[in-house]
Amino acid sequence: MTSTKRVVVTGATGLIGAKLCAQLIAKGYSVVVFSRDLQKARHTVPGAAEYVAWSPAETGDWAKAIDGAYGVVNLAGASLFGKRWSAEYKREIIASREVGTRGLVNAMAAAQQKPELLVNMSAVGFYGPHGAELLDESAPAGNDFLANVCKVWEREAARAEQLGVRTVIFRSGVVLSAAEHAGLPINLSKMSLDRPGLVLDTEAGAFPLLLLPFYFFTGGPVLPGTQYLSWIHVDDTVGLLIKALEDPQARGPLNATAPDPQTNKAIAATIGNVMGRPSWLPVPGFAMHLLLGEMADMITTGQRVLPKKAQELGYQFKYAQSEQAIRQLLRK
Asked: What pTM did the predictor assign?
């Protein structure tokens, strides 16, 4: 299927954005890339119709590119990985999402021809830490830092719905994706230990954190091990984003998670089995906090989230089981 519809994408040079733009361009969409780094954008997202200088702000010259667009996909926000969560960086995490989304919605309000829809990224962190109870889109918000980030983010996006713009709040789980380097699905060239903490390739998301111990034969569950990981393969993340763009029934919160959330212990056993490495050596939660600071809460706590709305919309997951996804990413 082809289309000449114009879609604005922020965060287009990131892990998800680059793959999404490539697929949209292949489908015939006219993709407008909003980016802080236009040179990087042209290199990372070749074939876009336009590259527009943009940074999170309430107004700007970029606003005119939104007028008449079919839709806006807002993926932008300071990375949750790669930096220790100092008080200053936590403010950046919030501001990059709050101010950026507010500016996009302000541009929609001022447009003569408003976009038909906004797909705005959020995260399952919205629900806060939970035990084994099953959570769908009707579950209430939590009260920890990540939940508060998501609440602020979603509140700004919800203003678009009041303008008559169909709005999808895309609550993503932990995205599994391989960053390939020297045959490994983890970019060791962008990894180092320093005093502030572990510096990771932020383009690779959380998967390197899960895999790294197994390369040193020290893999195992992060204690307590009973915490659930609501994950999703990057290909299904992109597939669901396109579903949200193209299906007029998609509206409101949409959990972007595979239908097979698993405990940390089960995920560790699966990684070990796929890699042929031991998976029994437990990692104390306090050790993760010493290394990563508050960021470690994303690993030591979790939520058991189900993609209820995605399944009701008829989305067919390419990678519904964790072993299937991990084997594909590790090329096993």
From this structure: 0.91
Per DSSP, the three-state class of 35 is strand
Q: How many domains does the chain have?
A: 2
| Residue 220 CB contacts under 8 Å (≥ 6 apart), including other chains | 213, 268, 272, 278, 279, 280, 281, 282, 283
Distance in angstroms (rounded) separating the CA atoms of residues 285 and 306: 25
The answer to whether residues 68 and 166 belong to one domain is yes
| 84 and 118, same domain (yes or no) | yes
Q: What is the residue range of 126's domain?
A: 6-173+233-256
DSSP assigned state of 48: -
Residue 198 is assigned to a structural domain of this protein: yes
Examine residue 181 and state whether it is found in any structural domain, yes or no: no
Instruction: State the CATH number of the domain containing residue 166.
Output: 3.40.50.720
229, 267 contact by CB (below 8 A): yes
Q: Residue 273 is encoded by which pair of tokens?
A: 């089995």
Q: What are phi and psi of 98, to 5 degrees?
A: -65, -50
Instruction: Clarify whether residues 48 and 99 are in a common domain.
Output: yes
From first to last of its 332 residues, the chain has per-residue pLDDT tens of 445 899 999 999 998 999 999 999 999 999 999 999 999 999 999 999 999 999 999 999 999 999 999 999 999 999 887 678 899 999 999 999 999 999 999 999 999 999 999 999 999 999 999 999 999 999 999 999 999 999 999 999 999 999 999 999 999 999 998 754 323 344 443 443 333 333 334 445 667 777 878 888 888 988 899 999 999 999 999 999 999 999 999 999 999 999 999 999 999 999 999 999 999 888 888 777 777 788 878 888 999 999 999 999 999 999 999 999 999 998 86
The region, left, alpha or beta by phi > 0 then psi within -120 to 50, assigned to residue 28 is left
Closest CA to 209 of 182, 186, 236: 186
CA distances from residue 257 to 20, 109, 137, 261, 293 in whole angstroms, order as listed: 17, 31, 11, 8, 26
| CA gap 293, 83 in Å, rounded | 10
